[in-house]
Design a protein that fits this description.
Chain lengths: 338, 173, 733
């Protein structure tokens, strides 16, 4: 860990002012990812601007019937908030599938969006990594890539986004409220995270001088038919090999609305609206789920160790949709897969 | 061969970061420390306050050995800086027994032999107290899942679950 | 016996649950300096240049040590050979010269007033290397592997017997590199006494081994050095040899002439030592009736370029089952990694994994129940030497384990058992380990107040040594448990070997017995000398110590209180120290055994495996403490589940570097992975193995577990995954 200055932000405007004045500074809130990376010398901020005391801890209903979640709401508070647990159980379930109780008590909503990849090479400063050191190369591509991306990767980077919460937020079509020197703006969740392309060092479209203030959930909550299914190398406290957020609404037996997002497979939570569009009106059958799975993975590409994820993702999609359709979502404590 | 001391090279001194006063209430007592921003809460407890009961097992939020209660909630003390917790109440394993009587969770850990080497034990116990306070674990499966952030390499998990169940039952009765 | 054999709670339990137990990184000292290690980023070559300029300019940095400026260290190889060092080779010497032998090698030590300053300055040390070609992949190097001598000689003509066998099974099993990952980080705190004397708090399984090593490396006299390890936060074998942090911490304390704390990071611990990646090749030939004809076992394991580390992987295959023909070979492949080390039941954990999976496959080929096959191959005699065992209740392990598990309800057909959407698999395996005993000394100081202090240099690495020492001493001295205190983990205490190999319980117990016997004699003399002594006419053989009294067993328990005898003899304390030496006896084989039964439930579509039930039936002689011994076996089972399903150190062979050097991506079982584990201790009286009938339980708990789980996965799915760990991708293949 390198030397850094520590300051506190008095309010949101002050936070923005401080970070605009020091492009090498970073905000710190929960700290559960940033401090980890600072100890590895992967993150080397010149200054930490502590935003953890800003008044961004409220969960409020919006006039549109949704929820506005303050960026500093801890993951555990969010998952267990009555309005979230009842109306957005998909989000609650995804949060509870990630990390540990202790980390969820600290990790913030905004910070979860900014989690960085678990790629081994990204974490090890002795190795090449375009995300950490642009231009140094991607060691994962020809190295150990069992946990890496099967969708949307580039020659420069095959890392995956590690968050579970974000997979649910992608499926729910959340919006990200941010504030910057020029005022506030709202970013659709699909536009928040980036694919690696030639600039894998940039995980998101958040500008360096912007702060996340809130995440907004639309009214549509899929409380009746949802499931978050996470497949990993042990039964808890491990990052996803493949995770699926599935949500359905029915018009009698036909699918009226569907959301499908994948975690652990790409540089961002993976969603394909064309697949969802094709499912609308179809029956909730294994055949339609299998067609959707096939379509979601049509451009998937495996590397030496992760090709298995393509078939695993197909099967997990079918299972998660089946669970969602039946109203029997995956439990995050009973480990038998329904 | 006598040792050659490395000469401090010419050039400006690279300063260590300025220290900041931090007030904490630790195990019920007000404590003041002056630490650099890069000191984690864990290292502040161990190296600055002499409370070595809280253990460092990975320093990266991956093992749970450093679990303490921060304002009543269980957290990994290696994953936050002490300066960020100015004004907070911290409870460590040293602050659980009352007047020589072990906390029911501590006693249950002994009764069920819920540890071997002891390196994860402080974290397990603080985590278990946090878990019981949260009140969300009702079944064995829920205890297992919600205690999965505390790795026990000696493999005492079934005994840890039994100890927590005993403490929960005592609390209920 | 009031305490031996009972489920006594740990005597150090309160210290551990209140955080007062002091570990190596906990010792406090005024003026403590802190170290941070800089490690090599390449696996092989030379250090061309170390530029510590920027690091030294950081305020609070005291010095940067490297091979260029370190204090003097011994030049002879012999000085670095600790008690556990391989015979062949020359141990690694930290900061000794410019040679790089493995990635992650310590190459510089930054010393500072605060550890965060040291850590920061370590990031500023610039190192240039001359890189040499390297190899880290066992599969690449296996063709160049060389055979090492093993104690077990072949018998019969295994090749011809195999060729002629009616049913044959040949397969290779693979165990990747695994790391011990004790939760406590490797740490040493060295207290500088000012007079050149050092007190070293070290994380080690052997304080005297570390002490002797440091004396040799730094040319110190034994009186100048004291090594303490009163508590150790897990070792599993990783702390048998002195690890480099203690060498560096002492180096630093001598350089700075002040106390130093050095704690390694979790990442750095991956370059200390590991269970070697091993290929186990099993060749079994059997008759149709289910008896083994021939056993061939070849193991190929990695070792470093500088030491030959080999354990007994293959011998178990020739010992455990009756077969006329047997042959073994153990090969080592040199790679540019650190030297491997013992890790919980070294050799057996890997070798028996191969053997017990092969036996399962043979049972399938023979259409036999796997327990039945083992019973048909059962041997009451050690097959290597054709000698009897001091005791062997493995048959009883099979019987009791199967009964508790409900094995008779098993349908032999793979894929035949289901629980809703999950396939159910039941698998079993045998386990075997040695019952060893080592020369050990114990001191007993008995006070006239009825309090006894027992001391010995052994460490309690979490296994419960403090507790069993107290139990054995309390029983043999006739005192209540509370009247006994135990001191361990101090190099100045009476001699003990490293804590490992499952030999601690037997070794220390017999040393206590011998010393307690001297106390008994002394008390008897004192009692006889009392005026009107009720024991005046007694014979020593009839004298026992019980309930704080010296009694005559032949005379209805007539006797005198110990305190009275000591008072009359004007003795306020009796102190005895004696060494129990172990005579070699090759007339009998000495082993522990186990039978493990495992249930898995598998979601076949998604490849998710859950180990829902394990029954481990263990025959290990007399169990001193059924509570702590059960925990040891349970811990072994959890370790075995990890080995079967989770654990693997990933090496990037292009970079020659371990890439998941943490405990987020090196997966060990978490609480959610572990369900019901039942431990059965089969009654196994044994007065041949040693007078108290103790065999030890530290290793036996893990042996065979991975095979039982792997066999259960096969039974559930019909899929045989031979390379561990059995992960989702392998099940979907």
């Amino acid at each position: 860990m390198i030397d850094f200055q520590y300051t506190r932000a008095a309010d949101i405007a002050d936070a923005v002012r401080q970070i605009a004045g020091d492009p090498a500074a970073k905000f710190i809130a929960g700290g559960t990812n940033l401090i980890d990376l600072m100890k590895e010398n992967v993150e080397r901020p010149s200054r930490l601007i502590d935003i953890s005391r800003l008044p961004l801890r409220e969960i409020e209903e919006t006039p549109a019937g949704g929820l506005r979640i303050g960026a500093l709401v801890p993951n555990s508070d969010l998952a267990h908030h009555p309005l979230v647990a009842e109306r957005y159980p998909l989000l609650a379930s995804a949060i509870l599938a990630g990390a540990s109780a202790q980390l969820r008590n600290m990790a913030s909503t905004g910070g979860n969006l900014l989690q960085r990849t678990r790629c081994y090479y990204f974490y090890d400063t002795a190795t090449p990594c375009n995300k950490r050191a642009p231009g140094s190369g991607c060691a994962a591509r020809y190295g150990l890539n069992r946990m890496h991306a099967i969708l949307g990767s580039s020659d420069a980077c095959i890392a995956t986004h590690p968050s579970d919460m974000c997979v649910a937020l992608a499926a729910l079509e959340a919006k990200v409220h941010v504030a910057g020197p020029g005022g506030e703006r709202v970013i659709a969740f699909a536009d928040f995270h980036r694919l690696p392309g030639d600039t894998p060092e940039r995980d998101t479209n958040l500008r360096v001088d912007e702060i996340i203030t809130a995440v907004e959930l639309p009214a549509r909550s899929f409380a009746a038919h949802y499931s978050y299914l996470k497949i990993r190398d042990r039964l808890s406290y491990a990052f996803a090999l493949v995770a699926v957020a599935a949500a359905l609404e029915f018009d009698r037996d036909a699918i009226k609305e569907v959301r499908l997002a994948l975690g652990g497979v790409a540089h961002k939570p993976w969603r394909d609206v064309s697949v969802e569009a094709a499912m609308r009106g179809a029956p909730a059958s294994r055949a339609s789920f299998a067609r959707a799975a096939e379509a979601m993975l049509r451009d998937a590409r495996g590397f030496a160790h992760n090709a298995f994820k393509i078939e695993l993702a197909r099967r997990a999609i079918v299972r998660a949709l089946t669970q969602a359709a039946a109203g029997t979502p995956q439990s995050q404590s009973v480990k038998k897969i329904r | 061969m006598a040792r050659k001391f490395r000469k401090r090279p010419s050039g400006p001194t690279i300063p260590a970061p300025a220290k900041i006063p931090v007030s904490l209430t630790v195990n019920g007592a007000a404590r003041e420390i002056v630490v650099a921003p890069w000191v984690t809460l864990l290292d502040a407890l161990r190296e600055h306050l002499g409370l070595t009961g809280t253990k460092k097992g990975c320093d990266h939020g991956q093992c749970g050995a450093c679990t303490v209660l921060l304002d009543g909630r269980r957290i990994n003390s290696c994953m936050t800086f002490a300066v960020m917790q100015d004004g907070a109440k911290v409870t460590t394993v040293e602050g659980l027994a009352r007047d020589g009587t072990l906390h029911p969770v501590q006693q249950a850990f002994i009764d069920h032999d819920a540890f071997q080497c002891g390196a994860c034990t402080s974290g397990q116990i603080c985590s278990a107290i946090g878990l019981i306070a949260e009140g969300r674990a009702k079944t064995v499966e829920e205890i297992r899942e919600l205690m999965s952030g505390n790795i026990c390499r000696c493999g005492a998990y079934p005994n840890i679950v039994a100890a927590i169940r005993q403490a929960m039952e005592r609390e209920r009765s | 016996m009031a305490y031996i054999g009972t489920p006594t709670s740990r005597v150090d339990g309160t210290a551990k649950v209140t955080g007062t137990a002091k570990y190596a990184g906990d010792a406090a000292a005024p003026g403590l300096a802190y170290g941070a290690v800089v490690t090599s980023t390449i696996p092989k070559g030379r250090i061309a240049k170390i530029d510590a300029g920027a690091a030294l300019r950081v305020a609070g940095v005291l010095d940067v040590l490297s091979h260029e400026n370190r204090p003097r260290m011994a030049r002879r190889t012999a000085a670095y050979k600790d008690d556990v060092a391989p015979e062949q080779g020359s141990p690694f010497r930290p900061l000794y010269d410019d040679k790089i032998l493995f990635s992650g090698q310590p190459i510089a030590l930054v010393l500072a007033e605060e550890w965060e300053i040291a850590r920061f300055a370590a990031t500023l040390v610039r190192v240039e290397y001359d890189v040499a070609p390297f190899v880290t992949d066992l599969h690449v190097e296996r063709e160049r592997a060389f055979a090492v001598e093993q104690p077990h000689k072949p018998r019969g003509d295994a090749d011809n017997a195999h060729a002629a066998a009616a049913v044959r099974h040949e397969a290779e099993y693979f165990i990747p590199i695994e790391h011990h990952n004790p939760i406590e980080l490797y740490a040493s705190t060295v207290l500088w006494q000012g007079d050149g004397k050092l007190t070293v708090y070290d994380k080690t399984q052997g304080v005297q081994n570390v002490g002797n090593y440091l004396c040799a490396v730094f040319n110190l006299k034994p009186v100048e050095l004291r090594v303490l390890s009163p508590f150790m936060g897990g070792g599993f074998g990783s702390g048998l040899r002195p690890q480099y942090q203690v060498t560096l911490a002492v180096l630093a304390a001598r350089a700075l002439e002040r106390p130093v704390r050095l704690v390694l990071t979790r990442q750095q611990m991956y370059a200390l030592c590991y269970r070697p990646a091993t290929i186990e090749r099993l060749v079994l030939g059997a008759e149709r009736g289910g008896t083994l004809d021939s056993v061939g076992h070849e193991a190929i394991a990695v070792t470093s370029q500088y030491e030959d580390f080999a354990r007994n992987d293959t011998g178990w295959s020739g010992q455990l089952y009756k077969s006329r023909h047997a042959k073994y070979v153990h090969r080592l492949a040199r790679v540019d990694l650190p030297t491997p080390s013992d890790m919980r039941a070294p050799g057996a954990t890997t070798g028996v994994y191969g053997l017990e999976c092969a036996m399962d496959e043979l049972a399938v080929a023979l259409k036999l129940d796997p327990v039945e096959l083992r019973l048909r191959c059962y041997s009451d005699r050690d097959q290597h030497e054709d000698i009897p065992y001091t005791s062997k209740k493995l048959r009883e392990c099979y019987r009791q384990g199967a009964a508790v598990f409900g094995w008779d309800r098993r349908n032999r057909e793979p894929r035949s058992m289901r629980d809703g959407s999950e396939l159910v698999g039941w698998g079993m395996a045998s386990g075997v380990w040695e019952a060893l005993q080592m020369d050990t000394a114990v001191r007993i100081v008995l006070g006239a107040n009825g309090h006894a202090e027992i001391s010995c240099a052994f460490s309690d690495i979490g296994t419960g040594t403090y507790t069993i020492v107290a139990q054995v001493a309390a029983d043999l001295l006739g005192l209540p448990l509370e009247a006994v205190t135990v001191q361990l983990g101090d190099s100045t205490l009476p001699q003990a070997p490293v804590e490992g190999g499952s030999w601690t319980a037997a070794s220390v117990s017999h040393a206590i017995a011998k010393t307690a016997d001297e106390i008994r004699k002394e008390l008897w003399r004192l009692a006889k000398a009392m005026p009107n002594s009720p024991l005046a006419a007694s014979r020593l053989d009839d004298i026992a110590l019980a309930d704080g009294r010296i009694i005559d067993k032949k005379d209805g328990g007539r006797g005198v209180p110990m305190a009275d005898a000591m008072r009359h003899g004007r003795r306020d304390r009796l102190a005895c120290e004696s060494t129990n030496t172990v005579k070699e006896d090759t007339s009998h084989a000495r082993n522990t055994h186990s039978a493990i039964f495992a249930e898995v439930k598998v979601d076949e579509e998604l490849g998710v495996i859950r180990v829902t039930r394990v029954v481990s039936a263990v025959a290990a002689g007399r169990i001193l403490n059924t509570k702590t011994a059960r925990s040891q076996i349970m811990g072994g089972v959890v370790g075995g589940i990890g080995m079967a399903l989770h654990e693997e150190t990933l090496v990037d062979h292009t970079l020659g570097r371990m890439m998941n050097a943490n405990i987020a991506e090196y997966h060990v079982p978490v609480n959610a992975d572990v369900h019901d584990i039942e431990v059965i201790f089969v009654d196994e009286p044994d007065d041949l193995v040693n007078p108290l009938g103790i065999k030890g339980v530290g290793e036996i708990g893990i042996v065979g577990v991975a095979a039982a789980v792997a066999n259960a996965v096969y039974h559930a799915t019909g899929k045989r995954v031979r390379d561990l760990p059995i992960t989702v991708d392998k099940l979907l293949r």
